[in-house]
Amino acid sequence: MASQLEHSSALPATSYAPPDVWTPALLARAVIITVLLLVAFWPILTGMYASWFDDHTYMEHGLLVIPAAAYMAWTKREKLARVPTQPSIWGLVLLVWGAAQGTLAVVAYWPWVGRTAFLISLVGAILALYGWRMVRELVYPLCTLLLMIAPPGFIYDRLTLSLQLLASRLGETFLEVLGYSVMREGNILELVGTKLSVEEACSGIRSLFSILFMCTLYNFFFVRGNLTKAVILLMAVPIAILGNAGRILATGIASQYNRDLIQGVSHETFGYISVLVAGIGCVALHMFILWIQKTWKVRHA
After folding, report:
1. Boundary (domain end) residue, out of 132, 150, 168
2. Residue 20 exposed, middle or buried by CB count within 10 Å (0-12, 13-18, 19+)
3. Strand, coil or helix: what is 191?
4. Helix (H, G, I), strand (E, B) or coil at 13
5. Tally of CB atoms within 10 A around 285
6. CA distance 161 to 146
7. Distance CA 30, CA 33 (A)
8. Are 128 and 47 in contact (CB under 8 A)?
9. Are the C-beta atoms of residues 289 and 233 closer than 8 Å to each other?
10. Cα separation of 145 and 70, whole Å?
11. CA dist 21 to 71, 133, 298, Å?
């Protein structure tokens, strides 16, 4: 028995040594592939950058998406450094797919198809260099990058029109509940001495995109549990719609007392306030979910 113990103690101690994915060779390959992706997709990327400042798309938040996703990945750098490097042949498949899709998008002038092709190629590059486990670790930052791409034109126009009409109906309902006389024709609200037109900019599409981006960041840094994250993201849509309806309500009330408040800087201020209120609503929803979870645990302890 003693000899067995001596023999076992003489064996070399084995400890897990986490693989270093930041070796000079891998870093050099990553830099080269990144440069090649930027060069290959440069026309598509410049078009996407221009769309962030297009008054029709309301994608101003797109300028913040890449830094936000990069910071998300940076916060996980220690965990990423322990992921074993297992390159996958599927990465090359995605790279070829992305190149073909990007070429088709440039020839046929399909901006959305070209912009998503860049993301497909980016995932393919990570997969070819590091493998599936690295992609799984980066799935949240990679999905966040989708928020920098405006929806296809036909979906965007349909969504904007639907939100315009919905905002008009909600505004009419809220004003009537408060006792104001209002008549609606499509997206036009007619009050005493004032006509309010719910234009595309007032449809809530801008606040919807902004609040989805805010909730995505909030989920990553403050929310635990995939189910809770999904609930907050889903509820961000009705919260944004209600926030915009509150903006129309405030505009309608203000028009009855001072018509200067429904145009210019004052009108824009109502929009920013509605986004802030909707963001606070999403945080309040998270607090409510935590309270429910805590109450449930206490009662069933």
Report:
1. 150
2. exposed
3. strand
4. coil
5. 17
6. 22
7. 5
8. no
9. no
10. 10
11. 18, 12, 44
Higher pLDDT, 5 or 36: 36
**Average of per-residue pLDDT across 151-170:** 84
d(CA 21, CA 73): 14
Q: Verify that 43 and 133 share a domain, yes or no.
A: yes
Residue 162 φ/ψ region, left for φ over 0, alpha for ψ in the -120 to 50 degree band, beta for the rest? alpha
Is there a single domain that holds both residue 177 and residue 106? no
Quick one: tokens of 109? 């002038």
Q: Which domain holds residue 209?
A: 154-299
Number of domains comprising the chain: 2
pLDDT by residue (tens digit) across 257-274? Answer: 777 666 667 667 777 788
pLDDT tens by residue, 189-241 = 888 777 777 766 566 777 888 899 999 999 999 999 899 999 999 998 888 88
What is the SS3 assignment for 147? helix
Task: Label residue 282 exposed, middle or buried (CB < 10 Å: 0-12, 13-18, 19+).
Answer: buried
Q: Are residues 160 and 239 in the same domain?
A: yes
Helix (H) or strand (E) segment spanning residue 47 = helix 42-51
Last residue of a domain, one of 150, 168, 195: 150
Q: Token pair 């920098």 is at which residue?
A: 148
What is the Cα–Cα distance from 296 to 298, expressed in whole angstroms? 5
Q: Are 156 and 192 in contact (CB under 8 A)?
A: no
Its pTM stands at: 0.81
Q: Output the six-digit token pair for 15.
A: 């400890």
Residue 69 neighbours by CB distance under 10 Å: 23
| Chain segment 92-141, per-residue pLDDT in tens | 999 999 999 999 998 988 999 999 999 999 999 999 989 999 999 999 99
- Domain assignment present for residue 18? The answer is no
User: Mapped to the 3 state alphabet, what secondary structure does 230-261 carry?
Assistant: HHHHHHHHHHHHHHHHHHHHHHHHHHCCCHHH
